[in-house]
Amino acid sequence: MNHETASRGSERDPSSLKIVTLCTGNVARSVMLGYMLHTISDANAARWEIRTAGTHVTEGLAMSGRTRDALIAIDELGEHPYGSHRSHQLSEQDVAWADVVLAAEADHVRYVRECHTLEEHRVVQLAQFVRYAPWDLDLAEQLLVVARHAPDAAYDVIDPAGGEQQAYHECARQLWDLASAFATLRPPGPA
């Protein structure tokens, strides 16, 4: 995945969205979610731009074989250049660029809010967004609603790192379900 501030006004094309997916090492959860959101965006002719990042990264690492195998096991994803991913530490530029930072864990939300300059409500836990974002509001309003809820470990996507392949498959399936739900809340195609 590549690492390439948009107007956040209401005149903005709702099918255009800049998303940073975030986990700890940027070798499993954020990578999976990034490829999933790319797939959904491409399938719906949306203009979603996605960057992946981590909070505590060794720069330049490839995703693990277990992450790749979990992605390949999701038939809906199709073909991707999985070998091209390299881990990336979340930067101030990533945060400024993003319309939304979708975090895997509550601790990731806290990290971004403490260590980076942004409108606090623009970083959310993906599962919390899916749970609380009203479908009939634009993104800015959805984020404000979700931000009323404190980051909560109950909404964490558990890190499969160090686990067996089954843990990666379960994580990937959970992320695919969340990405699909996110797409219903943020319709990716033209209106």
Give a structural overview.
The protein is an alpha/beta fold and 191 residues long. The chain has one domain (16-140, 163-185): 3-Layer(aba) Sandwich (Rossmann fold). It has helices at residues 29-43, 65-72, 92-97, 106-115, 126-132, 139-147, 165-185, and strands spanning 16-23, 47-54, 100-103, 123-125. It has a 4-stranded parallel β-sheet with strand order 2-1-3-4, sandwiched between helices. Helix 4 links the parallel strand 3 and strand 4 (123-125). Helix 2 crosses helix 7 (165-185) and helix 5 crosses helix 7. The protein is globular and about 40 Å long. The protein starts with 15 loop residues before the first strand and ends in a 6-residue tail after the last helix. The model is unreliable at 1-11 (pLDDT under 50).
In short:
This protein is an alpha/beta fold. It has helices at residues 29-43, 65-72, 92-97, 106-115, 126-132, 139-147, 165-185, and strands spanning 16-23, 47-54, 100-103, 123-125. It is 40% helix and 12% strand.
Key features?
191 residues; 7 helices; four-stranded parallel β-sheet; disordered N terminus; Rossmann fold; single chain; alpha/beta
